[in-house]
Write a structure and sequence with these properties.
66% of the residues lie in helices and 4% in strands. The protein has 557 residues and is mainly alpha-helical. Among the domains are: 194 residues; 81 residues, no CATH class; 107 residues. It is rod-shaped and about 190 Å long.
């Protein structure tokens, strides 16, 4: 996952309090290529000074942590001169434990900017950023969506974790018990946190006077257990790896955990010093059956609120059964210590009655665990068969999908070919359109030209028509003159009986007249030569034929 330390993805270590989270953080801190931040949402960062950063370590309180350098050394470059880590806000610790939009919503912009500054600080030093926190369980999904990276959730045997909570209170440190209720009340926008708050108020009003006094030990145990089972359900859905610190004494499991971390992050971490110690609680459970019933009711509410699957529900109930079995064993193993240890008489008396009940119920609890394991095995087998059936169905669907994909590819190719063909048709259409538009423009130009020529011809035709009318009148006049001349000639020939010589003179005179007439016709022909394709030409032809007729008639005479 990590390509280079300068740009490597961050590693997040999520857990609750008293789960050996400090030990896990120290295991990563020892790796030279890592910059490991301790409790990056801790409220201490709001006022942390450089002096505190180099002095607060495991020795200043009953931490039961391994000895190491001060917790907050890695924050020194990020501290403000007046105190407090840059970009940190006091609401980050508990008030924003669960985002307002729920587990699947996003970080606030201020949270995003703050965490990014931590990651960037590590990258600037060419180190792999590792961010550890016991206040991030409600923000795993948001952090993963914002920064990707590799997310590890650390868990511990629930009874051992509870004994550590209660043991701290027994020695005067109620911080962890108080933080439990602070988280619940600050995050009542979450449905199950609202359920837990309602349970707390109900049990307070029944067991005590006034709403502000502490909850009973048994009820606190029930709230603690339901709270952690709820967050375990949700965190399992988001993280990349879950580590059970109570099982790390097993070398095979330890090797499996470190190998997975190495393969996914490139970080070689060592867990060989893993150890399990169990604290003694402030008190024992006074009414196991009542606590069991209350816990079962809250667990059912938690499963419903997260819409748990069948396997998740079985695993959760299995953990509850294992918790009660571990409690019976704890009572059995610590009875001799209680009898010989100089503990207060009141504590010894309070432990005797539960011990007797524990001895009686131990076998029942173990049998219940076996039943749950058998039920879980049957469920897994049934789901495996269902998964196999689904796999066949998926294979059939995949084949059908491949066939459909091939058909789609063929259709896409056909559509592509059609698109190319259509593009060619469009090009041809556009070319034809351009050609037709050019022809139209040319035709319009010719039409305008022909219209102008027509107007000119109409003017000429009007002139020719007038000329033809005048020439027709002249032709009629010439015809009449010719007829009169012919009649005169005939009369003169007949009356005078002219001699051959006189006849020849007359004929010569007539021919001269004809020549003159022909000259006039030629002149007319020259005048109307430009109109040979119009009515003027037709008039000329008529005049020509008339002249030829006159010539033939004269020659015949």
């Amino acid at each position: 996952m990590t390509k280079s330390k300068a740009g490597s993805d961050p590693v997040f270590l999520h857990s609750s309090f008293r789960t050996s989270s400090t030990w896990l953080w120290l295991a990563f801190r020892r790796v030279p290529e890592v910059l490991a931040y301790y409790e990056f949402f801790s409220e201490a960062l709001n006022t942390l000074t450089p002096q505190a950063a180099i002095s607060v370590d495991a020795s200043v309180w009953r931490s039961r942590h391994p000895q190491s350098s001060p917790y907050f050394m890695e924050y020194l470059p990020l501290l403000n001169p007046e105190g407090g880590c840059a970009k940190y806000e006091k609401d980050f610790s508990f008030n924003s434990f669960i985002p307002l939009g729920g587990f699947n919503s996003s970080l606030t912009s201020s949270e995003h900017g703050y965490v990014k500054s931590l990651i960037d600080n590590a990258h600037q030093q060419t180190l792999i950023p590792v961010l550890s926190c016991t206040r991030s369980l409600g923000r795993i999904s948001a952090l993963k969506r914002a920064f990707s990276g590799y997310h590890i959730c650390l868990r511990r045997n629930l009874l051992h974790q509870w004994n550590s909570y209660s043991g701290q209170k027994r020695t005067g440190n109620a911080y962890f018990i108080n933080s439990l209720f602070e988280i619940i009340y600050a995050n009542r926008h979450d449905k199950f946190m609202q359920t837990l708050a309602g349970f707390v108020e109900l049990r307070r009003s029944k067991a005590h006077e006034g709403p502000n006094v502490s909850l009973s030990h048994d009820d606190t145990f029930v709230v603690f257990t339901a709270f952690h089972l709820y967050f375990d359900l949700l965190s399992t859905r988001s993280v990349d790896q879950v580590i059970d610190v109570s099982s790390l004494a097993d070398s095979r499991y330890r090797t499996e955990c470190t190998g997975l971390i190495r393969d996914q992050t490139g970080i070689v971490v060592e867990f060989s010093d893993a150890d399990e110690t169990v604290d003694y609680p402030e008190a024992l459970i006074s009414d196991v059956e009542s606590a069991r019933l209350q816990l079962d009711a809250l667990v059912a509410s938690a499963l419903k609120s997260v819409d748990a699957t069948e396997i998740e529900a079985l695993e959760t109930r299995k953990r509850v059964a294992a918790l009660w079995a571990d409690y019976q064993l704890f009572l059995l193993y610590t009875n001799s210590l209680i009898s010989s240890d100089p503990l207060p008489e009141q504590l010894r008396a309070r432990s005797e009655a539960p011990l007797q009940s524990a001895l009686a119920n131990q076998q029942t609890a173990l049998s219940r665990v076996d039943e749950l394991e058998a039920e879980l095995a049957r469920t897994l087998q049934r789901q495996a068969q269902d998964a196999a059936d689904q796999a066949w169905a998926v294979a059939d669907m995949r084949n059908a999908l491949n066939g459909a994909r091939d058909e789609i590819r063929a259709l896409i190719k056909q559509a592509s070919d059609l698109a190319l063909e259509r593009a060619g048709v469009d090009d041809s259409r556009n070319a034809e359109k351009s050609r037709l538009e050019g022809m139209l423009l040319e035709a319009q130009w010719h039409w305008r030209d022909r219209t102008a020529q027509l107007e000119i011809c109409e003017g000429k035709l009007e002139f020719v028509t007038s000329a033809m009318t005048a020439h027709a009148a002249r032709e009629e006049e010439l015809r009449r003159e010719t007829a009169i001349a012919a009649d005169e000639w005939e009369t003169r020939v007949t009356a005078l009986s002219l001699s051959g010589k006189m006849k020849d003179e007359l004929i010569a005179e007539q021919k001269a007249a004809i020549v003159a007439l022909d000259s006039r016709c030629i002149a007319l022909e020259t005048r109307f030569r430009s109109y040979e394709r119009d009515a003027g030409f037709r008039l000329w032809r008529r005049l020509r034929r008339f002249a030829q007729w006159v010539t033939r008639r004269t020659s015949s005479q």
